Amino acid sequence: MRDTYHEDLDALTARLVEMTRLARHAIARATTALLDADLTAAQEVISEDEALNRLDEEIGKSAFDLMARQQPVAQDLRTIITSLHMAGDLERMGDHAVHIAKIARRRHPDSAIPAELRSIVLEMGHQAELLVIKAGEVVSNRDAETALELDEDDDRMDRLRRKLLKRILDPGWSHGVEATMDVTLAGRFYERFGDHAVHVADNLVYMVTGEKRKDYEQEA
Amino acid sequence: MRDTYHEDLDALTARLVEMTRLARHAIARATTALLDADLTAAQEVISEDEALNRLDEEIGKSAFDLMARQQPVAQDLRTIITSLHMAGDLERMGDHAVHIAKIARRRHPDSAIPAELRSIVLEMGHQAELLVIKAGEVVSNRDAETALELDEDDDRMDRLRRKLLKRILDPGWSHGVEATMDVTLAGRFYERFGDHAVHVADNLVYMVTGEKRKDYEQEA
């Protein structure tokens, strides 16, 4: 009995890691869709989001079963509860990739991103990928030390977003209302994607140490 | 022992209802901040968000304790898990009110909303209040029937947002880049606020019936 139980707990982690893999793929394709006005990539991101939603649901069901059948306490209970939170964050990361893909689809065959902003958006896409890959490693290895790095990695995302907004607000900005809206929202979606990756890492810290990241950081 | 246990379960609900009350107040004040360029209101929304965060944390701790000390199954376990989800949604509703308040603060002493959009934004604010008040009633009364209405109430919010975006994209739109950004983001924050209220209602349906809203709706 205990064996199946621990296998089920491991399966939770495996599903979470799979979600980070899917979320990384989604944001990478969404960035391609956005930068290259690639309609195929956009459609892919939109339709493949279903897989992330399904995994989130599976984790929810599995967590519920584990709690109902067993009487998890302390560490195990924390693992189950934080897994639920992490699944929720990863599911929303998929949603943000979809939002970006939809911007690309709406402007197709034009590109939603003016030429002079392409490099910033590309950097935001890369940073988003880095954040979610790192979140996956951290979850997979139960590595609370590396988890602490994500907050700083995310500062870079926030700096990129501020840079993006500064360009839009520059008196030299000559693009129309649609471009202003698209860039504003895309910037926000990348930022939110990053925030959720940080939440995943924070939850991992709590899962492993039983402490909130900020308290754990002060001691570490 | 069982008495304390059921008191603790009731206390979860009471905290959730209190969160809907705070979230309603936050979004109402945020709308005032936005429409009247009211800096005091904006600051209030920002500083009072702490109360929502604290309640979310308290619900998390209480849920964890309940699961660790008792062995809740079926209905009770569902109540605890869905309470966690609802608290998360309500906490994020507070965040969206804060985002709106920060737009107001950033543009102060100017108003972020051009005169001809004031009525739409006011309607969005009112609809947001209605949604969260209804979510509170539904949670308080464990009323799965009324919970089904929120999805439709939220359609109205989506229509308002589309109306807002249409105005921005109208060739007659004469406002600058800042106004375009502010209105785009404010529209999104109200829409997300509404989405989270629908999630709260959906979770209530699941809490009470053990079925997802869509399945329950087909039978009802």
Descriptive report:
The structure is a homodimer of 220-residue chains. By secondary structure, chain A is an all-alpha fold. Chain A has one domain: Phosphate transport system protein phou homolog 2, domain 2 (Methane Monooxygenase Hydroxylase, Chain G, domain 1). Chain A has helices spanning 2-36, 39-69, 74-107, 118-141, 144-147, 149-169, 177-209, 213-219. Chain A starts with a helix and ends with a helix. The mean pLDDT of chain A is 95. Chain A binds chain B through residues 63-64, 67-68, 71-74, 77-78, 81, 84-85, 88, 165, 168-169, 173, 177-178, 180-181, 184-185, 188, and chain B through 60, 63-64, 67-68, 71-74, 77-78, 81, 84-85, 88, 165, 168-169, 173, 177-178, 180-181, 184-185, 188.
Structural class of chain A: mainly alpha
Q: Could you give the order of the helices and strands of chain A?
A: HHHHHHHH
The global form of chain A is globular
For this structure, the quaternary state is: homodimer
Family (chains A, B): Belongs to the PhoU family.
Keywords (chains A, B): Cytoplasm, Phosphate transport, Transport
Pfam families (chains A, B): PhoU
Main location (chains A, B): cytoplasm
